[in-house]
Amino acid sequence: KLMGSIKLPHASGNSMSIGAPATNPASDLELKLPATIGTARQVLKNSSTAGTLEFADPVFFKAGLTANSTSVETLVFTNEVFDNGNNYDTSTGKFTCPVAGVYFFSASIMRNSASGNAQVSIRRIRSGSESIVAIALQGNPSGVNEYAMIPCTAMESCNANDEFFVKNDGGSIYGSSSGNNVYYSQFMGVLLA
Fold it and tell me: Are the beta carbons of 77 and 65 closer than 8 angstroms?
C-alpha cells in the first residue's frame, strides 16, 4: 500500500512524520541523507549533487575595534571574538566570502565625543573592483559633547571570494572594549542562505 508519509512513533506514544510533496512530482524523487554524522553546530545543506544532503559548518564572524580611527582608512577590527571558518583577517580588516550566497553584515560604530560628523561605509571588493554597499552618517550638532552610535548594515548576494570591510569615510571613531568581548565599535557577518 502506498502512503503519503512515513510515521515514526515515539516510545511515549506521540510520533513524527516525514511527508511526501503536496503535488505529484514529474518523476520519482530521492532524498539522500549524509553518510556521516555531523558535529556540534553544523547544519544540513543541499550538496552539489541534487537531492543529496550533507553537513556543513555555518559561516559567521564578529570582531571588535581596539584603536581609535581619526582619518579616512579601512577600519581593522583586530580582536576577533569568533570566526567560524577563519574567513575574517584581523590584519587587513577584510572578510572573504568562502562560498556564494546571501550574507548579512553589520557594523556598529561609535563616533567619538564632540568630534564632529562621522561617516562609515561597508564596502565590497569583487574581481578587484571596490564598491560601497551601505553607508551611514552621524552628525554632531554644535555644542553637543556626547558619543553616538553609527549603525550600518547590508544584506548582499555574494560570489565566492568577494571581500567585505568597513571604511572610516571621515570623522573620529572610538575603538575600545567595555570588557568581556563587548566592543563600542564592531563588525560582524553571517551567511544566511
Answer: yes
The model's pLDDT over 77-91, given as tens digits with 9 standing for 90+, comes to 999 999 998 999 999
d(C-alpha 10, C-alpha 17), whole Å: 11
Nearest to 153 by CA among 180, 186, 184, 128: 186
> Could you tell me which of 169, 5, 165, 147 has the C-alpha nearest to residue 91?
165
List the one residue out of 121, 20, 15 whose CA is nearest residue 72.
121
Residue 173 C-alpha cell reads as 571613531
What is the separation, in whole angstroms, between the first and last Cα of the chain?
Answer: 38
* pTM higher than 0.70: yes
**Cell numbers 548576494 correspond to what residue?**
157
Contact 118, 170 (CB under 8 A): yes
Give the span between the Cα atoms of 149 and 94, in whole angstroms.
22
